[in-house]
Amino acid sequence: ALACMISAEVGAVLATMRRNSRWAGRYEEQLDHSLIYSLKLLRRSIFSWTKKPWNSINPCLYLAPFLDVVRSDETGAPITGTALSAVYKILTSDVFDLRTSHVDEAMHAIVESVTSCRFEVTDPASEEAVLMKILQVLLACIGGDMGAVLGHRDVCNVVNTTFRVVHQAGNKSELLQRVARHTMHELVRAIFGHLSSMD
Length: 199
Hints:
By secondary structure, this protein is mostly helical. It has 9 helices and no strands.
């Protein structure tokens, strides 16, 4: 079931790429493009991993293709947004947990990629949609149980990125302003909630 869910997220990102004006005409020619290749390779190989306990699989193996899209400055806002949605679903669907091998590496990779997210802004609405998805993923990183494995630098990066979005939202829609402020409040609550489990 987990492999099927991740495969469906790969399909969603690839479908968004095919619908995008920059990628649509060249999609078949770009099969060797690193972003497309890594997504297709993941979809081909993920079902072979189900032969061993899922908790023994390094989450970075199935997160990396999505995080590559999030970090890439070649993709537009719709593609980046779809990749962020996939990461959010993986984070919140118990695909991996604190007992999973290399969970700390996976959480660090998510924070590092999302806080350095790059995308081409084509219109204000799509930009705001991506910013809200960034906030959603960052809050899921800190607010869930796995937030306890994040290092101090990762937590600082999450807070700094959220604060930047709060500041940027001042001259954007009221909805983004409300979401950004709410996310900052929830981050602070979650961080203080984790203090008891930190050295």
